[in-house]
Amino acid sequence: MLYVIYLGFRFIMITNASIVPGEGLGNSIKLGSLMYSIINLLDRFHYRMKISYSEKHYLETPITVTVPDIGLRMVFENSDKQELVLIEVIDFKSLKLNYNGISLNNIAENAKDTYEIEAQENSDIVSTVPKRVENEDPQQRTNITLPNLNQIYNQTFGPTYPGKLSKNSDYYTLSYPGISFKFKINLNDLINKLIGLGTNVNDNTILSKLLNWDKNSDVACESLSIFLGSSWENFYETFQRSILDNKQTTKSGNKASSSAIHISKLLVNLKLGIIKLIFEATSDKNQPQEYVIKIGETTQQEILNILGSPDDYFNKFDSRLLIHNHLSKSFKIDLHDNSIYKFHNYFRFGLDFLYDLNSSKSKSTGVLKKLIIHNGGIIESLDFMKWNKCNWQLISGQYSDTAHPFELQDDISIDSSMYFNDIPPEFFNKIEGNTNLRPVLLNRNETEFIDNDLDIINPDEISDNNNTILEKHPSRDSTVSGHTSKTKTWGQSKLYGCNRCIWEVVESNGCITSVTIF
Hints:
The chain is an alpha+beta fold. It has 9 helices and 32 strands.
């Protein structure tokens, strides 16, 4: 089933941004950026977001984030790091765009309106918040001049190879390296003339007819797409094939624009409690950095030296630890001792660390007692986008030693690209001694805050767009039923306890939202 949700609060903004083909919009919306970074950026400015995803094939299909207030739609691959692979401007009525200093669309505001200007630091995206009149119609407040084919081809971007005319001759797509434009042919007379040219007409003839039409506004730009590739056709075919093959679509040259450090993979040996953190190389010249930590030995100070200051922290007596109290007996975790614990949250890395501050091995800083690995990219989890997605790989470690903790030999490896039901029974047999795991049901929406703006809508209500990349997956449904029951079970999950780890699994789709290593 395909679901769409709304996140955030209504807060109208009008923005200016420069277009960089093959890269993005301004300094903030960049191809290769992580969904975690983009959504948190938009949420910081209270943008209303609409998120579309497939429930049945969640990990195999892309995620689309639409920002209605500025007519922006972004597509993120969902197989690995949830990187931004496509940016679409689908409405030119609010987003003011320019390319090399040349304006693409003109949005003329009434002089009576006043604005409060707020510019982002190190960014050319400027947010203007109008002081609005109650029940004011935005269409009456603005005069919109849309870009047209003649303007794009002859003035702004220059000549390129002829584009493609739709079968009904009502749309024309023109492609440049890294960017394409979709034009709506608004006049029936022009459409009939194009149809009259016949099916075997030369592409150059069609382009010439459109460019030399008397009224430029009859061939107005309806949307544009920014992508990585030589043409729209090349990108679209590659991306569609990657969806069907469930392969990673981003290329090594398509790095996130942010200078922030990212963990590319986290390896865990469950038997030995040894974890390896592998960081992405910051440039082509640098090698990935690797650090090894161990449950019960590595100190808080050592982890601070590796990861820097945490995004948040709290002690054992915080209410957020109560979730584990009823698991202490079943999962052999003693949470009722006299030790003092402290949690460090690294939301940007998708990791939490629990330290025992009374440990005799390090009385000054505490010793690592527990690690929680999050997948904050699971939409139906209440932790969605609070934590980043951390890509992990686990081995049971039954046939390894401290000198070679991550050499598989005859061991079984599992990773974060798998659903919980995809984990082979042999893996649980190795770490638990049996395959009969009994889950504990956890209903988070009874005890934790849920955004009242959360809403599930029928995807049939969404207008189709020929340029959208999120098409129906061959093996998924396109309609939604049972919205009431869906809302009631939102955030409901199951906890499975094993030797040295606890799994939290979203009940609706079987995705693993977190793994606790202890």
